[in-house]
Amino acid sequence: MKPDEIDRYLSSIPELDRFNPADIKTTELSGLTNFNFRLQIDDQDWVLRIPKPETNRHIDREAEIHNQLMANQLGIAPRPLWRDNSGASLTPTLKQTRSITAAELDHADGLKAILAPVQRLHRSGFRFLGEVNLKDSINEYFSLLPDSRRSALNQRMIQARACFDRIDERDCEAVASHNDLVLENCLVGPKRLWLIDWEFSGMASPYWDLATLCNAAGLDSIQSKRLLECYGTDSAQMEESLLFDYRTLLQLLSDCWMAAIVHR
Known about the structure:
- This protein is an alpha+beta fold.
- Helix content is about 45%, strand content about 15%.
- The strands form three sheets. A five-stranded antiparallel sheet has the order 1-2-3-5-4, with no helix packed on it. A three-stranded antiparallel sheet has the order 6-8-9, covered by helices on one side. A two-stranded antiparallel sheet has the order 7-10.
- Strand 4 and strand 5 form a beta hairpin.
- Helix 3 crosses helix 7 and helix 4 (about 135-145) packs antiparallel against helix 5.
- The mean pLDDT is about 90.
């Protein structure tokens, strides 16, 4: 994104009216689906997110802000100071925070701290906008692939159909879910763990968030079982085989999404 485009965004944000855009220190941050910038002036510190043009074809921005505000009520998501209908947003920087590490998912205290906001979300009874369907999502991104990449994933798609059948038979619960719990979206702060980037949130199986965490941290079968035990309750026994199926399907979804949207 060019500097003059960033300046136009800064000039359009009411919360920044009292500042000269030229005086705001702008630092580009990483991002796959959005342009992200840290903005600093005086004692103010924000993150500006500007969606890339192709992103909004696959993301419901109305659902995103609705779901993020509900998660904010639970104390697990930051509240934007400003946003527009395209999904651009200005959010206070979460100071003194860092992304979780895979190692933190390998011991009991770390697991409990990381799963606490996930449990709070899943057991909140909140009704998020949008219901995420894993089969539909995979088929959508698979259909966007060029023939060469589609051919390379054909065998995995055949195997995925068996997983779809097992999930349809045994997993019918849908709860308010983040649906993108990669390590970078889980920020440890002095007093709490924040979940950020609610673009893909919606109603989904609780296995979606748990499997994403397992994949992101590269957990083995023993570690994954420990995560399920830490997450579960006596009234909701979680199944290792379903978690394995979700891990398989979500890795396929990630590969299709990366090939179709990021690296096309």
